[in-house]
Amino acid sequence: MNNNNQPIGIFDSGIGGTSIWKAIHQLLPNEKTIYLADSKNAPYGQKSKEEIVALSMKNTEFLLEMNCKLIVVACNTATTNAIQELRGKYNVPFIGIEPAIKPAVTHSKTQIIGILATQGTLNSALFNKTTEKYQDTKIIEQVGHGLVHLIENGEINSAEMTHLLHSYLNPMIEANIDCLVLGCSHYPYLIPQIKKILPDHIQIIDSGEAVAKQTQNILRDKVGFSSAQDNQPIFYINTNPKVLREILGNRFTVEEKKF
Fold first, then answer.
1. What average pLDDT does range 51-80 have in this prediction?
2. What are phi and psi of 252, to 5 degrees?
3. Is 184 marked active-site?
4. Torsion over CA of 212, 179, 142 and 101, rounded to 10 degrees?
5. Is the dihedral of CA 64, 46, 210, 253 positive or negative?
6. What is the structure's pLDDT at 1?
7. How many angstroms from the chain centroid is the CA of residue 72?
8. Of the residues 38, 184, 196, 214, which has the maximum number of CB atoms within 10 A of its CB?
């Protein structure tokens, strides 16, 4: 495969997909990345499929204008509701992010796992098709109402966040889960909070590493790796960039852009 110095595009309904960006950047530090946070429309989880598809197409077209060679849909809700439509319309490889149910089922000894996700992900046809494969495992689904909103507002360690997490996780603990799947790219930012609530034996599983490896595979097999010297990532957001800058440790360029 020839070298390809075009950037990798990544989009999410907000700042949460930076958890996916970090995994990609760590595995592929020589690749230039452009991250798009559609925080103005977050969360996607409460929107209709039609709205999610329309927003995902708008985000894709923004990244294609930036000459991206590959697009990572770093949002579970957008993946489960829109990736089929995106692949049908645009001539660029797409990598989606789905709740990591398979590794959770594989690791589970109790055959009871929990999944914390948005309404949009849990209601999607793709999610339900995936869970149907695992009839022998009890899957306890919980909608994370309010979590994305608090993360987008920089309230990760707030009392309200702690209260919500207890109300969502305690029933799962009582049900004897031994794996918790984080089914939203925002939720890895809650892992320190979640660890304070869950017993030590419950494993927390997210999709970041798997998405990064799939990105590497697509670059190797279809698109080509970058050999450019300029690999500084760029982040765009359509609301106040303050929280995004803080989550990134104020180390990268973050531009507020209306789209």
1. 97
2. -130, 165
3. yes
4. 50
5. positive
6. 65
7. 9
8. 184
pLDDT tens, position by position, 129-181: 889 999 999 999 999 999 999 999 999 999 999 999 999 999 999 999 999 99
Distances (CA, A) of 233 to 32, 56, 224, 254, 255: 6, 21, 18, 9, 11
Which of the following is catalytic: 75, 105, 143, 219?
Answer: 75
Amino acid at site 159: A
Residue 72 phi/psi, 5-degree rounding, is: -100, 120
75 is catalytic: yes
* Helices (H), ranges, 66-116: 76-89, 101-107
Structure tokens at 18: 């930076």
- Taking a C-beta distance cutoff of 8 angstroms, is the pair 256, 237 a contact? yes
Token pair listed for 99: 């709740």
Q: Give the confidence band of 14 by pLDDT, cuts at 50, 70, 90.
A: very high
Calculate helix-pair angle for 208-218, 18-27, nearest 10 degrees: 50
The pLDDT assigned to 137 comes to: 95
> Helix, strand or coil for residue 248?
coil
End-to-end CA distance of the chain: 34
Which one of the listed residues 184, 190, 204, 212 is annotated catalytic?
Answer: 184
